[in-house]
Fold each of these.
Amino acid sequence: MKEKVLITGASGFVGYHLIAEALHNNLEVYAAVRQNSRIEHLKELPIQYVYRITATLIL
């Protein structure tokens, strides 16, 4: 089983290069992007897209 990684801001310049490095290191990539983000440059990559992240802060 591959290790998994979630990359936020995946549609941006840094995010794209983080995805490339994660794939190079044989990680399963989940890319967090906004609904209106341009992701054409990511479409050929073997990644999963996450459009909404819900987090709960417990104090």
Amino acid sequence: MGGEAGGRSGDDAFGFHGPDFQGRRPGCQIRGEPELNISSFFNRFFPPSCLLCGARAARTLCAGCLADLPWHRQPQCPQCATPTPDGQVCGACLKHPPAFDHTHAALAYAFPLDRMIPRLKYHGQLSIAPVLGACLAQATARATRPDRLMPMPLHPTRIRERGFNHATEIAQTVASQLELPLDLDSCRRTRDTPPQMGLKHDARRRNVRGAFTCSGEVQGQRIALIDDVMTTGTSLDELAATLKRAGAAEVSCWVVARALPPGG
């Protein structure tokens, strides 16, 4: 990957530039006269740049890079969002129905998401979270409105290590843009489970069994769970099952990215 941010407009400033992005993007123009305040003064002399290609942009992503993201729009299983030929429920969900009712995935977990999300989670680049949240808000704008949003909980040990919960950072943008309540307190992760990465499906399920508790009032509620990536969906399934046992009427998964099978 390229170097870290060096403050040079037009460069691959954040190390995300790759073979799927051809050259620099044309600069995006900020319309209208800026207000005379410190923020606009700073932006005039140090104009914001696109997070991915480094070109000047009015937003965190320029229009070209936003359009080039791997949007997950192909026919897919309505329950887990894995691709299916005609958008029917997939064989895995028919054989072992998950506790969640629907899944909405904004993007496929491919370049550049496979670099952006680890940068957010493990390197604390919090400026990435609003970008991911905006993509998720765009993808779910026409979905059935839940009664509340709930980010995937992190164990307190992980929060102390990282200083934040990446799912909460993403969910804050979604809640703001869609004007939905954000519930940070009803569910907690009570067991500090090892990372799911590298585990097979059955091992993932054993790893998160009994990892969550629900102490909030969720009876009859429609809840959308917010997370960064759905791979096998076992963590989301366990959390959804916990909420269903507590009386939730419907649980959906709203994820930034869906890991797809080869060729998916």
Amino acid sequence: MKPLDIKAEHCTAGQWLDAWAENCAKLQVRASSYKTCRGFIENHIKPALSKIPLEKLTAMKILLPESQCH
């Protein structure tokens, strides 16, 4: 498997998640597991984090997305 060629300064967390799912996870798990993984990404992770630039993503932003801080 080749590494993902994504530059952090030009990528959001959502774009990285999509690339990771398609180029890494999809190749390593069963189709049903991939479908479940994509569901978690689309329904739970991306709504909270998808627009954050990857270079600015921190553990605190993952633990306390802005949508939950208000």
Amino acid sequence: MFSSNSSSSPSSPASTDAAVNHLADQAAESADHAIKAAQRVATDALDSLAGAIQALRAQAEPLLDGAADQASSMAHRGLNSLHDSSRYLRSSARHASENTVGYIRHDPVKAMLIAAATGAALMGLLGLVRGSHHRD
């Protein structure tokens, strides 16, 4: 391209060096612009992602709070139900005990005969169960 003959070359080496430096500067400037544009795109994408995450968090937070409130409410209802059932069982046992004591006071002989018959029946069942285990 370049000949060693300086008379046929329209430009001097100094002007060629200047042109190369100018092209290098333009390339560097273009690279800087491309890097800055890529940085802007990346920053915009991260900002968009951060906004989407904030929106999801804002939507999820009331749902999580509601779920926690509902779980707490269910636990309280369960405890209240357990307390009510316990109170009912105690009342029923007390009532049965009072009725039994009243029945024994009203007819003690009959109550003793029923107790003896019940005891004998239980002992008979226990003997049958033990006897069947010893045969096996």
